């Protein structure tokens, strides 16, 4: 599903964020990406949805090399990748329903399909009753659930979550994990960058640890492995 071959990333200021990354993520896997601050986790994640372009190497998502992708083709490929951000990135002047629907409107789905799909994912994240609410009327956990609904409404095979529980209290964070697990159970590949030691150590999945821009540990049912 995802393959990274000899991926390097050096920023214009000379900082080397990724240093020869090689990894392969199977269809249907749930993978945690961990490591200390400044280790290269964010760059690793951002390269997976072409927010950042690697300096060298290839990143294949379902056979498409993101490193060679022309700018005009990026939006089309991103339709296959759902992205969940730590800070939600909701559109403040749109309702919950409209925020989620927006992802389908840009690909010109029919109004009937949009209504059906949006209601389905709002049911999944348990926010059907908040469909007409605006983001500032929601709690942080509810906003994150809207963000997740938006990321999966077009049924992407890959969901990338960048610190999705980082701004949430522990109880709310576990609720978000339940939703991500449900998405994974339905067949999506989930890659999640996190600093949450309790989640990683309790819900054991594959763990990829990054330090100094390199993968230093890759283990099935691994542990967080760092002090927080």
Automatic annotation (TrEMBL):
It comes from the Bacteria. This is Cell division ATP-binding protein FtsE. GO terms for molecular function: ATP binding; ATP hydrolysis activity; transmembrane transporter activity. Belongs to the ABC transporter superfamily. It is a peripheral membrane protein. PANTHER family: CELL DIVISION ATP-BINDING PROTEIN FTSE, IMPORT ATP-BINDING PROTEIN. It is found in: Cell membrane. It comes from Fictibacillus macauensis ZFHKF-1. It holds the Pfam family ABC_tran. Residues 2-228 form the ABC transporter domain.
């Amino acid at each position: 599903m995802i393959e990274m071959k000899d991926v390097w990333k050096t920023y214009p200021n000379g900082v080397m964020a990724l240093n020869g990354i090689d990894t392969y993520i199977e269809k249907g896997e749930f993978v945690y990406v961990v490591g200390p601050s400044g280790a290269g986790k964010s760059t690793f994640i951002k390269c997976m949805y072409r927010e950042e372009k690697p300096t060298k190497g290839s990143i294949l998502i379902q056979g498409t090399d993101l490193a060679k992708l022309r700018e005009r083709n990026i939006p089309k490929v991103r339709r296959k990748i759902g992205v969940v951000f730590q800070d939600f990135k909701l559109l403040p002047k749109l309702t919950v329903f409209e925020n989620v629907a927006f992802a389908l409107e840009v690909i010109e789905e029919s109004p009937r399909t949009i209504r059906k799909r949006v209601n389905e994912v709002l049911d999944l994240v348990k926010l059907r009753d908040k469909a007409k609410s605006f983001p500032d009327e929601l709690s942080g956990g509810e906003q994150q659930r809207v963000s997740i609904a938006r990321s999966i409404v077009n049924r992407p095979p890959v969901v990338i979550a960048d610190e999705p529980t980082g701004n949430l209290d522990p109880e709310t964070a576990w609720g978000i994990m339940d939703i991500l697990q449900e998405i994974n159970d339905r067949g999506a590949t989930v890659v999640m960058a996190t600093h949450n030691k309790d989640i990683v150590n309790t819900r054991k999945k594959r763990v990829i640890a990054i330090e100094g821009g390199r993968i230093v540990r890759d283990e099935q049912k691994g542990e967080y492995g760092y002090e927080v």
